[in-house]
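User: Structure please.
Assistant: Input sequence and predicted structure:
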Amino acid sequence: MVAYFPSLSDSLRAWAQAQTVFFIASAPTHGKHVNVSPKGYTDGTFKILGPNLCAYVDRTGSGNETISHIYENGRATLMFCSFGSQPRIMRLFCRGRVIEWDSLEFQPFLSDTMKLEKVDAARAIIVLDIIKVQTSCGYAVPRIRQTALDNSAVGAVAPQCSSLSENLSPLEERLAKEKNDIGVAAFEERPTLKFFNSKREREGTAHDYQNEMNTSSLDGLPGLRAARRDTGENLLVGDRICLQSTRYMGKGSVMFVC
């Protein structure tokens, strides 16, 4: 059954933080495209920072939709779903903001707030204020077969978590338990993105790629500000000739055009 909550409970927080993949959806106020992006590498890029706050590190990629949409109207929805023993879908309805790689806020937020180390070719941190939480049954989502995870892999995870349980907080114990579920433990990260982003970082080409691919959205909205600036755009002029911002007002939004 569907249920709504004003914030994340400890159990939902642990379950979400344990997942290896989530999806983020966003859209322009006016335009043809609604974007949905899958996100992995959650151990090293995604953090739930409180009952109504989460953030993830946005690595360099070919698309720029989420950043453009959040700059334009701030709306985003995160979705998590279980592929394991207990079915569940959870959506986090959010208002977001973007901290780009060249912002003075970027490194303190990454290291002090998110407690994360350097992420190669990171272009931004997406910070999301959670305004509503929705859970539903998830019965239509397929689950992973037990044979997808061999006994050696299960054994490698479970003892490690149990041996640390005496030193864990209740929230950390919940997180360790969730990570043992087959719907989490059966997944492994692809090395491809880390390889290419590490290569771009070493060669100093990450920002060149951002300049080429991340200056605007599919609907022509302004994209990564650092990329726009580095390609010679006057940001003040560029922002004024586009749909500049939206202001959230109750059930609707008001668009301001300069």
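The radius of gyration is 19 Å.
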